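Mods, move this if it's the wrong board.
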Amino acid sequence: MLAAAPAGADGDWQKVGGDARSGVSGLAYEGRTEDGTGVHVLAVHDNKRSGRPRLSRITHREGSDGIAPLTWDGAEPVDLEAIEAIPGMPGEYLALVGRGIVYRLKVTGSTATVVEYAPLPAIGEGDDFESFALVAQNGKLAALWADRGAGADRPATLYAAPLTFASWGQPLFGAVTRRAFRAVYPTDGGRRHISDISVTGSGRIIVSSAADAGDEGPFDSAVSDVGRVTVSEAGRVRVTLAAPATVLGTFPQYKAEAVECLPGSAEVLLGTDDENFGGYVRSMSFCGS
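Not the wrong board. Structure tokens:
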């Protein structure tokens, strides 16, 4: 179901990178700026060659964005696609690569140190991951992630599981549930049904979907409200998908691969990986209860 909100209702796209090495594949909220006029977020880049940037800090304000690379200290990942702050653990994050390895990071100043890493559970044949989100409810923690899917013949598979950590820092996943999801938009035959996930404070699941015809585009993407997630006091995770999803905004000519609902706000920060054209970010009001 297409909503009426136009893509340009809030802030404009602001450029944060000029080439294929600087696209934004995922975003994680760090905090507000000291003056309260902007936000700091961490951005992952899906670079595969050694020595290329993996992680940057973006300071986003309407009309102005600053970006600074962070030093990666530890085993170097290949193809980072998503990153999420760990609730209740300041300065700690989980970052995901396309083939399903999760890196636990501790960020101090301009350095991100690898604490531990582990594979996702229940990886299916051909799975290619671009999304990861965490939700904290009733004192429990759960993770959501998805195989992105490909066109009409392969919907996305949305996975969910309880999450805890071993004493040495390794992520530990509980029983996994799966749901199939097909994006309403884009309608391109090669669309990626889920390119990122974020969860609002009330448990709404917000996803981006994207189409990519090659390094020079054309691109197309959308952000949709696809359902809800709850975590019980016993740690049981339940995902309920809407049929159909509600498209909140469409973004022709941009490939949105990052969606991050900002805590305590209706605001979402979107990021693009537009291949040879670099990366852009913008804010929208998609995350209200």
